[in-house]
């Protein structure tokens, strides 16, 4: 479809006029239906009088706290997590401040609803539960006019974009256009966990089709009904998008690539990391959070990172991204070249252990991990041969850490470190219960999606959540507040260090290697401060001069969900 520029110009003029008239008569019924300003029953009598709300609300006036309490009561009555998700999305669309207040005040309870695992189910069923559209859909139909499409978005001062093409949604595969739930969910966390203003956040889904036959045959599917565009057609659409974003929002807008398939993810990151403020959360955010957990766990297992041996199940974005950051950190600590430190890390993919005899047929991101070793087919054999101290699941395939695998880990490690990172819960390589039971309570365990605390032989274990949600909100805030123009690996290391430093003895005593999410805003401020400091140190910051107290500055930048008083 071609864009008619003249028509678009006239439409924009009309919109500006409407906007002005909206501002002039921004009251009454319209005000109640504007999610950014609506306060529902919390409008005071004075506000009701001044803004033509009399009679549009029942007479009682309640506090925001009571509204949160009532909403939580309603949400807790839903038995099905997807119903809770839909209630939350309705709230976000009707009263944004109440949505964020509720999410911030009940973060541990609500994170599994707006994020993994429930967001995965929401994406699978997005077509059926689709109500009001959230985010911006850029499909092949928009080719040639993406710049104009971006201008249709109501907010102009965008600071963060989370973009997916829906091809690898969590461990659920290709969900096409229905992947939109992921950018929407991630950006809700940017605000709730990192304090970035909601109006500065833009969720985007690039729709180039889907290869998911079920969706193509689903009458409720909301995306393009065609197989995925690839090659030049794909690259051109992505390039137009990346250029249009920079043209529209400037070079300081942060673009987070999320849940792209690995055959595009690495290339997109390499291509745009020198021209845009961009990072890939699955490769880099995940690496930073896992490194933090590993550094923290050294306090329990002892030794340095270099004393450990790491084995991954899954050698894609998450696996090789984490592997590289571990190797980089060991290299920094030991002054050994990274080519040497990589030898501490082994990866298994769907064909077995990655070894030198497979080098020729390996994708480029696996080649650095093809060490000298006999071919090994199964994970169990790899565990028995390599004898890792740390086992990390990034395969996207559930229940692949079998009893035999975990028992083997526990047979040569006093405290085996076992991380099942794959999401959602159904794809986790093992459950918390399996990790603790099969290791006789000795495993140090964390998972990508949350597991409830459990008892084993009279002791309560609290499984931690190793999820990039600890990192990207603080990382993003640090980049934004320093006006950074590029993401550098040292910023990921700084974020990791800041997170590891937040784990307390009390957390360790419960078996945690991450601090609880209830303190996440303070943690994000610490991460943001360290990231911003690194941006200034590297000469990549543009907001000068550097504030004296970066943690305080980060806190002062954070969005507050408290209602404002209207005159
Ligand atoms: N906790 C967190 O914060 C995060 C978790 N994740 C999760 O990690 C998982 C993987 O994501 P990502 O790395 O991006 O995906 P990729 O598709 O890039 O990589 C998956 C890897 O797993 C391998 N694999 C698949 N099936 C098997 C199997 N049966 N046995 C051994 N290896 C297998 C693939 O092998 P091959 O290359 O041979 O096909 C590939 O190397 C997802 O479930 C995702 O949700 C991702 C990011 C963050
Ligand atoms: C957490 C995340 O980014 C993923 O599972 O893809
Ligand atoms: Mg992801």
UniProtKB/TrEMBL annotation:
InterPro entries listed in its UniProt record: Aminoacid_DH-like_N_sf (IPR046346), Malic_enzyme_CS (IPR015884), Malic_N_dom (IPR012301), Malic_N_dom_sf (IPR037062), Malic_NAD-bd (IPR012302), Malic_OxRdtase (IPR001891), NAD(P)-bd_dom_sf (IPR036291)
Similarity field: Belongs to the malic enzymes family.
Q: Does the keyword Oxidoreductase apply?
A: yes
Q: What Pfam families does the record point to?
A: malic, Malic_M
Q: Which UniProt keywords apply?
A: Metal-binding, Oxidoreductase
Q: Which NCBIfam families match?
A: PRK13529.1
Q: What is the lineage of its organism?
A: Eukaryota, Viridiplantae, Streptophyta, Embryophyta, Tracheophyta
Species of origin reads Salix suchowensis
Positions of the Malic enzyme NAD-binding domain: 283-536
Establish whether keyword Oxidoreductase is in the entry: yes
Query: What are the residue boundaries of the Malic enzyme N-terminal domain, all occurrences included?
Result: 92-273
Official protein name in the record: Malic enzyme
| Cofactor(s) listed | Mn(2+); Mg(2+)
List each coiled-coil range: none
């Amino acid at each position: 479809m071609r864009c008619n520029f003249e028509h678009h110009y006239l439409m924009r003029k009309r919109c500006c006029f409407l906007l002005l008239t909206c501002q002039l008569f921004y009251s009454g019924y319209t005000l109640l239906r504007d999610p950014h300003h609506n306060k529902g029953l919390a409008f005071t009598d004075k506000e009701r009088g001044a803004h033509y709300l009399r009679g549009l609300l029942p007479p009682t006036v309640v506090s925001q706290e009571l509204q949160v309490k009532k909403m939580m009561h309603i949400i807790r009555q839903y038995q099905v997590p997807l119903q809770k998700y839909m209630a939350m999305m309705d709230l976000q669309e009707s009263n944004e401040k109440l949505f964020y207040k509720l999410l911030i005040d009940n973060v541990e309870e609500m994170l599994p609803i707006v994020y993994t695992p429930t967001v995965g189910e929401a994406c699978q069923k997005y077509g059926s539960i689709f109500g009001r559209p959230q985010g911006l859909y850029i499909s092949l139909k928009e080719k040639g006019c993406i710049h104009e499409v971006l201008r249709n978005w109501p907010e102009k001062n965008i600071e963060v974009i989370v973009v997916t093409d829906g091809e690898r949604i969590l461990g659920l595969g290709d969900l096409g256009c229905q992947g939109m739930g992921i950018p929407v969910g991630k950006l809700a966390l940017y605000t709730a966990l990192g304090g970035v203003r909601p109006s500065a956040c833009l969720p985007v889904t690039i729709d180039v089709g889907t290869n998911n036959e079920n969706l193509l045959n689903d009458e409720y599917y909301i995306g393009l009904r065609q197989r995925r565009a690839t090659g030049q057609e794909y690259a051109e659409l992505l390039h137009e998008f990346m250029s249009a974003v920079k043209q529209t929002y400037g070079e300081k807008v942060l673009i987070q690539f999320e849940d792209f398939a690995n055959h595009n993810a690495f290339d997109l990151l390499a291509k745009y990391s020198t021209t845009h403020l961009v990072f890939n959360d699955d490769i880099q955010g995940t690496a930073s959070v896992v490194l933090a957990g590993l550094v923290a766990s050294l306090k329990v297992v002892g030794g340095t990172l270099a004393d450990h041996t790491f084995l991954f199940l899954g050698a894609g974005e998450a696996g090789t991204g984490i592997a590289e950051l571990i190797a980089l950190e060991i290299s920094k600590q030991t002054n050994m070249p990274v080519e040497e430190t990589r030898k501490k890390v082994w990866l298994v993919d769907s064909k077995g252990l990655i070894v030198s005899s497979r080098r020729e047929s390996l994708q480029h991101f696996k080649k650095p991990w093809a060490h000298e070793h006999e071919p090994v087919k199964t994970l169990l054999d790899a565990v028995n041969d390599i004898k890792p101290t740390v086992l990390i699941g990034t395969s996207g395939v559930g229940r692949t850490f079998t009893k035999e695998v975990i028992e083997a880990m526990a047979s040569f490690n006093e405290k085996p470190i076992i991380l099942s990172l794959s999401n959602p819960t159904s794809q986790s390589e093992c459950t918390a219960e399996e990790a603790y039971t099969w290791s006789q309570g000795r495993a140090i365990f964390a998972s990508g999606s949350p597991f409830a605390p459990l008892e084993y032989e009279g002791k309560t274990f609290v499984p931690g959540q190793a999820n990039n949600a600890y990192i990207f909100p603080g990382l993003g805030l640090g980049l934004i507040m320093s006006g950074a123009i590029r993401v550098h690996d040292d910023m990921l290391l700084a974020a990791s260090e800041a997170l590891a430093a937040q784990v307390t003895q009390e957390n360790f005593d419960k078996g945690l290697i991450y601090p609880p999410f209830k303190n996440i805003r303070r943690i994000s401020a610490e991460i943001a401060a360290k990231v911003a400091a690194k941006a200034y140190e590297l000469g990549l910051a543009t907001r000068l001069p550097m504030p004296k107290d970066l943690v305080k500055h980060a806190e002062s930048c954070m969005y507050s969900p408290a209602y404002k008083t209207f005159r």
